[in-house]
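User: Show me an example of a complex going from sequences to structure tokens.

Assistant: Sure. Here are the input components:
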Amino acid sequence: MIYSDWLDYLPQLLEGLRTSLALAGASLAVGFPIGLLLALGVASPLRPLSGVCIVLVEAGRAVPALVFLQLAYYGLPSIGLTLASFVAGTVGLGWITAAYSSEIFRGGIASVPQGQREASVALGVSAFDTYRTIIIPQGLRVALPALLGLAIQIFQGTALAFTIALPELLSAAYGIGNQTFRFLSVLTLAGLLYVAIVIPAGILVRSLEVRMGRHLAPEYR
Amino acid sequence: METYWYILAGLPTTLALSVLAFAIGAVAGIPLMLARRSSLLLLRAPARVVIDLSRAIPPIVWLFIIFFGLAETGLKFTPFQAAVIGLGVVSSAYLAEAYRGGLMAIDKLQWEAGHALGLSQRDNFQYVLAPQAFRVALPTMATFAIALLKDTSLTYTIGVNEILFRANSEAQVGSASSLAILAFAGALYALLSIPTAMVTRRLDAAMRSKVAQ
């Protein structure tokens, strides 16, 4: 199954892969901080604030990523906002990242024992400082493996940006296929490039999970 | 208004794709899971490769390989057929892992108790382990079903005439309403997936109470 033409395709595909990775990185850089804010917002006692945050999270989880990309790229121009495809891709995947990561952050924060909060009240630590220096750092550690798992999924999701004319890995492969009419060969190579990122990353995340769970009894790992 | 009815008429295709791909995965996932758990390396290793590859390659790439790639080898599919096969491949891998997770969650003592009671290996699996494993796996399967429903939107890229395909073709015209049209498509998916998610959460609690701890 080794194709002789793979070496010819590789430089162009690697160029596409670089764009895919850049889009994933930008989406995560936008999505994770917003996800953390959404997690805090959902838990807020202010009803209007928590309501808005819940709607943003539920929409992000219920609507396909592809629809968000299309909305950002083809939809927003109708209200006068024309975005470049990389920006539209970042907006679309960033929203998805924020929605899914907010649930992970929420789980991480909820895992911090209640006694920690009580102790910081007793010590006179302000609510803001309690979150900033006590709750969030501990919650983040619990959330980390799941966040990295999400990051892998977002990287896979960058293939959807093919539909908004972004020259990422799948677009590069499709473009070559159109020129050479050897779709099977070039698409297989593109698929293997995704595999070459996703599988090692998955192994790293799993080993991190094990490392971070070392203090737990076996049945909780 | 006509535009919205036209998009809504893509709903049966979206649902048919989801149901067919899920059915393929639910059936093909069983032998795949059994092979993955086999003590024979000759079965276990290929099953693992198949599962890992199916999950590591993005679904949209699978659709392209099957629709554009296989056509060169003479295997020509209609867009709908290619979509069912592509999403079916992905479903088989995910559901095999869901089944395996369910089985791993069952207490080892259940297996030993069945053995001590003189059940054959097959009966033990069929009557004691599999029903409990299925209950544990069910929420994972339901979560996957929702993800699959959303993933059917990818098939518009190979020309399947479903919800997003229709919305996209209407929105491309460049009218002022493209935002509303695409938002309508998005809302349709949300209307399908949010109730499913709510039922899943309730089902999860009910099912967990029926598994030996």
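The lines above are the inputs; the final block is the predicted structure for all two components together. The interface with chain B takes residues 58-59, 61-68, 70-71, 74-79, 156-157, 159-160, 162-163, 170, 173-174, 177, 181-184, 187-188, 190-191, 194-195, 198-199, 202 of chain A (CB under 8 Å).
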